[in-house]
TrEMBL record:
GTP binds at E132, N159, N201. Gene3D superfamilies: Tubulin/FtsZ, C-terminal domain (3.30.1330.20), Tubulin/FtsZ, GTPase domain (3.40.50.1440). It comes from Methanogenium marinum. Keywords: Cell shape, Cytoplasm, GTP-binding, Nucleotide-binding. Its main location: cytoplasm. Residues 506-515, 705-714, 721-732 have a biased composition (Basic and acidic residues). Residues 747-756 have a biased composition (Acidic residues). This is Tubulin-like protein CetZ. GO terms for molecular function: GTP binding; GTPase activity. GO terms for biological process: regulation of cell shape. Pfam families: CetZ_C, Tubulin.
Length: 762
């Protein structure tokens, strides 16, 4: 899927920078990137996005109030986008950190983009870490509501979850390696925020990048992509579906000499280990959904899903795959589930990607909303107290001494005065308080309060403008978080130059208040093991998913179409399967009254007799045998081995493509450039072309002669044979996976260049 990636702010630009880097390394070229920020320092530190694609909009004076939406000139951004050499894109993706300031530009930017692009616009948004403070989390909650309402879908990635998870993983790894003398093998979780972000960004870029690269080729014409996935499949899963999460889990395959040797052992060996391979796919899927997911969520609240498995074909267990499909299909609340398997040769990994779209239950989002609610309540209480205190002060200034001496709880609390101090109230205390409090940015609210007499930030949809003062506080909170992270390990905080800290001084008291504002959300238990799983509430009135064995389709109700597959599909049932129903290693249908309609057949061995002909691009697989059907019309037959017997009507278009084609007793010959393949056998043809037939192409008696390319090709082949030119075997460009939109492209053998699975699928 080709995208225009727009990075906004520190988080957005850094992630897009990395995504762009991965894209260049993979030589696929499906990402066109620009970075927009108000922080020039952060922009300068990017290392991959070209300079002319970085846009810096400095605030006139960061110390005074500035509005991000007017600071960032959206028209200039649009000009740059239009000037860019934009290839045909399938969608636009905007990357930004929730709770930051630059994300405020999304609504405006989206509005402009929609004027020029009809492609869907998605967001990739980062949820903040808890320690960044209540105000930050509260703004993140507001931001999410706002961007969700203007974008077609929003991918979420939770910094908090992933930071904890990776830290636990690193800790576990270091403990495990303590016995090893060479310290360089120890992985230590960094305490520098920049390095933490770098690790998190790597995860995000990998999850998103792999999904994008699936289905793209390198421009050089070299078959760099092993997976071809129709971008439409991904877009259909995402579009109009609110919040999206991606789960991505991989497992390295053992590559000892013995294992390599075992690859050449008999089929019996593989059948013995088939259960093991199936279990691996299932456990990878569980990991992808429960552990390695961009934001932990309730699977049963998802509306749509997309499942892809990839790896060496002999390791991809169809049984495991079908079990996973069935599990996901039954678990999600919606009905749409897409899936595909992608055999990738020469890789040492097996992996799975699971995309869940339209999720309604994401605990972290609920938590942010709750923090926002609490924060607003606290703000309201504080403002009320402040107003009351102002009134008291005014009373004192007006000489109303008695009014000032009225016991006032909040004043006592603020000053820490005990009961005995009640009578010794000193007017100077109030002035001190006033001086201290004057630093609090309350002017606007005070005005509102004095006018309306009550606090009015109750409207859920009303978002108070994000002032530069608030921004400074956020930055301060973030600095606290950075400090805390370092302090945990007793290490010095390094100045990473990545995040510019604001320069507005605050009183000690205000800092204390900030501390109070820090949330104390019920902490997650420290993860001790990586296999710890989230336990999500199960869905009511659903069968318990069978994760280990193949499950029957269900009692009296017919199984969903997507459940068909595997070895055999019963041939006696007259009710034809509906949709993309037939996927499996071996499919056999006989005497069906009703033809299967859509792109129904995908599998290794498909055998169909006496069926009402499938009409679309129905047959795709390795080996086909079609007996006496009405003609297959479109580009129907594609596979390694195609055999058409007694066809009443010829297949017309570019119908036959495969390694080995055998058409017997065809009454009418295929006319167009119909026959393409390594080995073509037509019987009952006219003898006149015999002189041209050589090598793999044979024609006998009564089939009308092919008059198109075939003759030329046969002649060419003959000449080549005569000059003893060694001719490489002709292979079709595409080899079928198991869904209609998924093709495996055969690529040159290529060694993995990393051991982390990053480029094992390009
Ligand atoms: N994963 C990840 N998250 C980041 C990164 N930088 C910042 N964040 C998170 O994103 C949130 C927004 O931060 P930024 O993107 O730096 O904010 P901004 O939009 O540039 O606005 P400022 O508030 O001016 O910094 C922060 O609260 C962090 O939680 C990063 O490089 N990677």
């Amino acid at each position: 899927m080709r995208i225009l990636a727009i990075g906004l702010g520190g988080a957005g630009t850094r992630i897009v920078d990395l995504l762009y880097n991965h894209d260049m390394k993979s030589r696929v070229g499906c990402v066109s990137a620009i970075a927009v920020d108000i922080d020039g320092n952060s922009l300068r530190q990017l290392s991959n996005i070209p300079d002319n694609a970085r846009m810096h909009f400095p605030a006139l004076d960061p110390e005074i109030h500035f509005d991000v939406t007017s600071t960032i000139n959206v028209e200039e951004v649009m000009n740059l986008i239009q000037k860019m050499d934009n290839f045909e894109i399938d969608s636009i993706m905007i990357f930004a950190g929730l709770g930051g300031s630059v994300i405020d530009a999304i609504p405006q930017l989206t509005e402009e983009l929609r004027k020029s692009f009809i492609e869907p616009i998605f967001g990739v948004c980062i949820l903040p870490i808890r320690n960044e403070g209540k105000r930050h989390s509260s703004k993140a909650s507001d931001d999410l509501k706002r961007v969700k309402s203007v974008l077609d879908a929003v991918f979420l990635f939770d910094n908090e979850t992933w930071q904890e998870r990776l830290k636990a993983e690193y800790d576990q790894f270091s403990v495990a390696k303590e016995t090893i003398t060479s310290s360089y093998r120890q992985k230590v979780f960094p305490d520098n925020p920049r390095d933490v972000y770098a690790i998190l960004n790597e995860k995000i870029a990998r999850q998103i990048g792999l999904l994008l690269r699936a289905g793209e080729f390198s421009e050089t014409g070299v078959e760099a992509a092993d997976i071809v996935l129709d971008a439409g499949e991904v877009l259909n899963t995402l579009k109009g579906n609110g919040l999206v999460a991606i789960g991505y889990a991989t497992e390295p395959l053992r590559s000892s000499f013995k294992d390599r040797f075992n690859q050449w052992r008999s089929d019996t060996y593989f059948s013995e280990t088939s259960h093991k391979r199936a279990t691996r796919i299932v456990s990878l899927a569980k990991r992808a959904v429960y552990e390695e997911i961009s934001v932990p969520c309730d699977l049963t609240s998802a509306d749509k899903a997309l499942v892809l498995i990839a790896g060496p074909s002999q390791e991809l267990s169809m049984k495991g795959f079908q079990t996973v499909r069935k599990w996901i299909d039954r678990s999600i609340s919606g009905l749409e589930m897409r899936s595909g398997d992608y055999p990738v040769m020469n890789t040492r990994f097996v992996g799975i990607i699971i995309v869940l779209a339209g999720i309604s239950n994401i605990p972290r989002v609920t938590e942010l909303n709750e923090i926002r609610r609490q924060y607003e309540e606290e703000n309201a209480a504080e403002e009320t107290r402040f107003l009351q205190q102002n009134e008291v002060n005014n009373g004192i200034l007006n000489g109303e001494r008695e009014k000032a001496t009225v016991p006032f709880e909040s004043v006592q609390t603020e000053t820490g005065a005990g009961e005995e101090e009640k009578d010794d109230f000193d007017i100077t205390d109030l002035f001190e308080d006033e001086a201290t409090e004057s630093e609090y940015p309350h002017n606007r609210e005070t005005e509102i309060l004095s006018e309306e007499g009550d606090y009015t930030w109750q409207d859920e949809e009303e978002h108070p403008p994000y002032t530069s003062m608030e921004r400074e506080e956020d930055l301060q909170n973030r600095a606290n978080w950075e400090g805390t992270m370092a302090a945990e390990d007793g290490k010095q905080v390094l100045n990473d130059g990545m995040i510019t800290l604001g320069g507005v001084a605050r009183s000690e008291k205000r800092k204390e208040q900030n501390k109070d504002n820090m949330i104390s959300v019920e902490g997650k238990g420290k993860k001790n093991a990586t296999d710890e799983q989230l336990s999500m509430p199960g869905r009511q009135e659903r069968n318990i998913a069978d994760m280990t064995r193949m499950t029957d389709g269900g009692e009296n109700k017919g199984p969903k179409d997507s459940i068909f597959g595997l070895k055999d599909i019963p041939s006696s049932d007259n009710k034809g399967p509906r949709d993309s129903a037939l996927v499996g290693e071996k499919i056999s249908l006989g005497k069906q009254d009703k033809r299967p309609n859509d792109a129904s057949f995908g599998g290794k061995d498909v055998s169909i007799s006496f069926v009402k002909g499938p009409n679309d691009s129905a047959y795709m697989g390795r080996s086909f045998s079609v007996t006496s059907p009405p003609k297959a019309n479109d580009s129907a037959l594609m596979g390694n081995k195609i055999s058409v017997k007694s066809s009443g009507i010829r297949p017309n278009d570019n119908a036959l493509i495969g390694n080995k084609i055998s058409a017997k007793s065809s009454e009418i010959r295929p006319n167009d450039s119909a026959l393409t393949g390594g080995s073509v056998h037509l019987s009952r043809g006219t003898p006149k072309t015999k002189e041209f037939l050589n090598g793999d192409v044979k024609m006998s008696a009564r089939v009308p002669a092919p008059k198109d390319d075939l003759i030329t090709r046969a002649e060419r082949r003959k000449n080549k044979t005569q000059t003893e030119t060694k001719k490489p075997e002709i292979k079709p460009n595409y080899k079928k996976g198991t869904i209609s939109s998924g093709y495996e492209k055969e690529s040159e053998p290529e060694e993995d260049d990393t051991d982390d699975g990053l480029f094992w699928i390009k």
